C-alpha cells in the first residue's frame, strides 16, 4: 500500500556536481513570509561544523526563489527553490571520473547493480549528502510555517560524537539560552567541555584517516495535543518523523523520547503521569501537564502536548581516506575502495538537516489537521480547535449505568 501524500510536501532534484540543486514545496498556504535570510542562515549552518571537508570552502549556498512567492510571501502556488553549485563538473571525465571500486557503507554497489552499470558515479552523485542542502532549503519552509502560523519552535543540537557526550538537559524553560551556547560551539553541542572532547575525537580520526559519527537530538516546543492520528499507520506522527529522519543520508537509527531505554524499565517507571493545571490554561495551553516526558511528546501516533523529542544516529561517513577492502566491478579483482573528497565528521551539519526535516513533518501534520488555503484561514482553524478543546466537555458527561 502506498502512503497518501500530505497536503504539505516537497521534492528535491539535482546531483552533487551538477549545475544546481532544486526543490519544489507544495501545499504552503498563501501569506506565509518566506524569509530567505533565515533560509540562508540555516544553509550556512549546514555547511559549518568541525570536521567538514574542502567542498564547503568551494560552495556558498544561497537560495533563489523562482516561483510561488510574491513580495516575500507565499501565494499558495508551488514554491520552487534553487541552489547553484559552484563546483559543477558532472560531465567532466577528468574531474569526475568513473568509480569502479565501491565504498563499503555507501550506496555505490547497491546502486550500480540496481541500475545495471559498473560506474558507481551515477548513483553516488544523487546519493551524496550534498542533496541535504536542498532538503534544508525546502524543509525550512515548514519551520517558517510552524513559527508563523502555530507558534511552534524547534531546537536541535549534537548530543554525542563518538564517545564525547553532553549530559545537559533541555527543557522548555532553558532551550533559548542553550541556543546561544550551541551556536557558540563549532560542534553544535551544549557545553564547551564536550565540544573540545568532540573536536579531539574528530582530530584523531583525521590522523587515523578515518571518520566518526554520533547522535543528534531535536526538540519541538508548543505542539498542541492531537496532531497526527492513530487511525492509520501512515498518519502516525512519530512514524512520519522516523521516516523523514531515516531518509537523511548516513542515519541508521531514530528514537522518540526514551527510545530503546523504554525496553529496559517497567511501565510504572516509564509512562508519564497526567495532571491538570487550571492555572496554566490560556490561548495556547490546555492545562494538561506531565511529570516526565519519556514518551517524547507522542502517544498513539499523536502529539500529547509535551515537547516532541527525537534522537537520530548518524553513522561514520563511508568515504574513508585509508580505504576499505572492495572489488573492482569491471574485473571483479580485490581492490581498496575508491576515495571521493569528503568530511571526517558531518554530525554537526546533520543536526541542521534533522531539525528542519522533523519540523517539516510536524508542519505537514498540522496542515493535514487544520487545513486552510491562506495563513489567516489556517490560523482561524487552529484557534477554533484550541477554543473547543478548552471547552470540553461540550455536553454533560453521560450518567454511569449501574
Describe this structure in words.
By secondary structure, this protein is α+β, with helices and mostly antiparallel strands. It is built from eleven helices and 17 strands. It has helices spanning 36-47, 55-58, 108-114, 121-127, 131-150, 175-184, 192-207, 237-246, 267-270, 347-370, 375-390, and strands at residues 9-13, 20-26, 64-67, 69-70, 73-74, 79-84, 153-161, 164-165, 214-221, 251-256, 274-276, 288-290, 298-299, 302-303, 308-314, 325-327, 334-336. The strands form six sheets. Strands 8-7-9-15-10 form a five-stranded antiparallel β-sheet. The protein has a four-stranded antiparallel β-sheet with strand order 1-2-6-3, with helices on one face. A two-stranded antiparallel ribbon has the order 4-5. A hairpin with a 2-residue loop joins strand 13 and strand 14.
